[in-house]
Specification:
Helix content is about 45%, strand content about 20%. A 6-stranded mixed β-sheet has the order 1-13-12-11-14-15, with helices on both faces. It has a domain at about 60-200 and about 405-420: 2-Layer Sandwich (Nucleotidyltransferase, domain 5). It is an alpha/beta fold and about 425 residues long. The chain has helices spanning about 5-15, 20-35, 110-125, 170-180, 195-205, 250-260, 265-270, 275-290, 300-305, 310-315, 325-355, 370-375, 375-390, 405-420, and strands spanning about 50, 60-70, 70-80, 85-95, 95-100, 100-105, 135-140, 145-150, 150-155, 185-195, 210-215, 220-225, 235-240, 365-370, 400. It binds beta-D-glucopyranose (BGC). Beta-D-glucopyranose binds near residues 158, 159, 194, 221 and 242. Beta-D-glucopyranose (BGC) binds near residues 69, 141, 221, 242 and 269.
Length: about 425
């Protein structure tokens, strides 16, 4: 294995997302979003109605929530007190995959096995209580069509999930069947919502003036309150921003896409979200060394950027890497993360431009939740800088609110908003 310095420089350069690209992405994102809202079939953004508006903050009650959408599934018992107050009474979380033991995400899994697994986690959070009646709010973080907030039909798996026989099916109906199989007739799934919608609800329950909800984690996406020019009741729309298809892919993006579950789909997500950035790094690192490597994890990427990755990289590539090559590897990882954050900024500003038009951007709160965003300091700084770069002084008005636990809180709020 030999380090090719020329290739290293080219790889770093290929992840640049310069000022012109940044500004152009804002405009194209906005116009693609508006085309999608008008129902144009050829837009890569097709805003999905949630059938939910914003909460008042006074929603109350006791709910069970299920958060299914990333690597872990969580069930929680949430109490809403109104006045933006809430309490988390219990929580159970389990990974979808435990290598060597079970896998509820891949081709070899089954829909029944998956829904039984979800019911088992709900049973665990109830501590086996099959008597007390609860309504359940379900955060289901995949593109889905709805005709009410009570159930959702999965359009297509994302984030590399591949469970057969769920695409095209009503999800809460199947969850309900699994709950009944387990003897949990006391738990009724009454609400289903995307995780971005849950984050927006959770933030709006507690604070005023939240414009956008976003997830920046294993997946990437955003939603906002659409007011339909005053002609219809405002509704939160899930943009499925990860499917935006007008960004220039470099050769590593293309190689990653070609080996992904859904080739040609989720182009933006594959350049932005935590699920894919480690794989992009490995593609480029392998190209520089003329080898193939498995995807590094988000944590490894963090370590490499922070300059703590020398041991890890030398273990990966043999001990021959010099300090300069370790530094170049860090620059490569940083370029990948920086591009991700700059694209996220373009999405947020494109959305703000749609919401606010060309006028001055006053104080706007964007609620963001996600491990990637929380742990990757460099992504947060790059995102802030990009907002300033696009919006100049008005960039200061855009506040990024860090939300935690939004998926569960939002699901409980949705269940409370819908009622029986
Ligand atoms: C899904 C979205 C979800 C996002 C964040 C994407 O892969 O398509 O529905 O909001 O991940 O979890």
């Amino acid at each position: 294995m030999e380090w090719n310095g020329q290739k290293a420089r080219e790889a770093i350069e290929s992840f640049a997302f310069g000022p012109e690209e940044l500004v152009a992405a804002v405009e194209v994102f906005r116009s693609e979003m508006e085309k999608g809202l008008q129902g144009s079939a050829d837009s890569t953004l097709k805003p999905l109605p949630s059938y939910l508006g914003l909460p008042t903050g006074d929603e109350q009650g006791e709910f069970i929530t299920l958060d299914f959408g990333g690597t872990n599934v969580r069930a929680e018992h949430v109490r809403l007190f109104g006045g933006g107050q809430y309490e988390l009474a219990a929580r159970v979380a389990k990974p979808l995959i435990v290598p060597g033991r079970y896998n509820h995400a891949g081709h070899g899994s089954s829909a029944e096995g998956l829904f039984n697994f979800l019911a088992e986690i709900i049973d665990a959070v109830l501590g086996g209580n099959h008597q007390t009646s609860y309504r359940l709010g379900h955060t289901f973080s995949f593109p889905s069509t709805q005709d009410s907030p009570r159930d959702a039909k999965l359009i297509s798996w994302t984030k590399e999930l591949a469970v057969p026989d769920v695409e095209g099916r009503w999800v809460n109906e199947r969850l309900n069947d699994a709950l009944l199989r387990r003897g949990l007739s006391n738990v009724r799934p009454t609400a289903i919502l995307n995780d971005t919608v849950a984050v927006l609800l959770a933030a709006a329950y507690q604070w005023d003036g939240v414009a956008i909800g976003s997830i920046y984690a294993t997946g990437f996406n955003a939603c906002y309150l659409e007011n339909f020019g005053g002609k219809k009741t405002p509704m939160i729309m899930n943009l499925e921003a990860g499917n935006f298809g007008w960004l220039d892919q470099n050769k590593y993006d293309m190689a990653l896409d070609a080996t992904s579950e859904k080739e040609g789909a989720q182009t933006l997500e594959k350049m932005v979200s935590g699920r894919y950035l480690g794989a992009l790094f490995s593609q480029a690192f392998g190209d520089i060394l003329g080898e193939t490597f498995p995807a590094v994890t988000g944590e490894d990427l963090c370590r490499i950027i922070q300059g703590d990755g020398a041991t890890f990289l030398r273990r990966m590539a043999g001990n021959s890497l010099t300090d300069k090559q370790i530094e170049e590897s860090a620059a490569l990882a940083e370029a990948i993360v920086r591009r991700s954050a700059r694209i996220a900024a373009a999405v947020y500003v494109g959305m703000l431009r749609h919401i606010l038009g060309e006028g001055i951007i006053g104080v706007q709160n964007i609620a963001v939740e996600g491990s990637f965003f929380t742990h990757m300091a460099i992504a947060r700084v790059a995102l802030r800088d990009a907002l300033r770069e696009i919006l100049k002084d008005e960039g200061e008005n855009v506040q990024l609110l860090h939300v935690t636990g939004g998926a569960s809180l939002g699901a409980a709020i949705a269940a409370a908003m819908i009622g029986d």
